[in-house]
Amino acid sequence: MSSRRATTIAGSLVTASFSAVLILSLPAGADDQGPGSSKGGKPVGEAPAGVRTTTLLPERISVDNKSGKTAITATVKNEGSKDSGRIRLLVVGFDGLTVKSVQGCAAIAKKDLPAGSHSGFSCPVDNLAAGASKSYDVDATFDLGKTGKICLPVQTSDGKKTFWQQGPVPFGTTNPSPNEPATPLLLGTDNTPAAPGGDELPRTGVGRDLLPLGAAGVSLIAAGAAGLWWSHRRPTARPS
């Protein structure tokens, strides 16, 4: 092998190794959320002809092990052939997942939150053209000693009708990493806390289990009692 060729190969190996170190050293963050997923989502009420709203959540998020802070991207889409008209997206947290703020959205009054939820925001989407989408930056905290769930309903702007609802769907991990700077959580996975005897999670709130969706607009059903929460308990916050 000529010295020139050997030098070229060696240089390539050094460059590749340096790139690998850079990639591996980058911390997991809000930008490393993987592709969006509609896991846990279902149509609820009948949307106008030609309108098909859905939502997306990241397949993974990263929780800071010291502060518990995390960031989530919530996306609403119109996969139909016609404009959606004025709609809104709600972002609601359950159990260990607390929604702190959502860009451009108003907090839902505590009295208007569903049973088992402790935080939520109402986001005025106005109109989504056919094929268009809109994303919102969600700041949240996650108590890694509990389960944590999020819910994304899509409604008419006055909240009288729900077209689509994703969740309440959990984020979590079955392989806790308390000694690392951050813990990665996967969508659709119940969280297992990193603690001795952590097989049994504390049961927090009312109706911890995944709540069913009804075909006639029944959205969040409290444990043991059926109720049209989104129809009868509308948030006081109104889109601007």
Provide the structure class. Answer: mainly beta
Q: Tell me about the biggest sheet?
A: 8 strands, antiparallel
**Poorly predicted sequence stretches spanning 5 or more consecutive residues:** 2-31, 197-236
Distance between the termini: 71 Å
The coarse overall form would be: elongated
How would you concisely characterize the structure shown here?
By secondary structure, this protein is mainly β.
Topology readout:
Layout: H1 3-25, E1 36-37, E2 41-43, E3 53-58, E4 60-64, E5 69-78, E6 86-95, E7 97-102, E8 106-107, E9 117-127, E10 133-142, E11 148-156, E12 162-172, E13 182-187, H2 229-232
Antiparallel strand pairs: 1-3, 2-12, 3-5, 4-13, 5-10, 6-9, 6-11, 7-10, 8-9, 11-12, 12-13
Structure, explained:
The chain has 240 residues and is mainly β. The chain has two helices and 13 strands; from the N terminus they run αβββββββββββββα. The protein has helices spanning 3-25, 229-232, and strands spanning 36-37, 41-43, 53-58, 60-64, 69-78, 86-95, 97-102, 106-107, 117-127, 133-142, 148-156, 162-172, 182-187. Strands 2, 4, 6, 8, 9, 11, 12 and 13 form an eight-stranded antiparallel beta sheet that branches. The chain has a five-stranded antiparallel beta sheet with strand order 1-3-5-10-7, with no helix packed on it. A hairpin with a 5-residue loop joins β11 and β12 (162-172). It is elongated and about 50 Å long. It starts with a helix and ends in an 8-residue tail after the last helix.
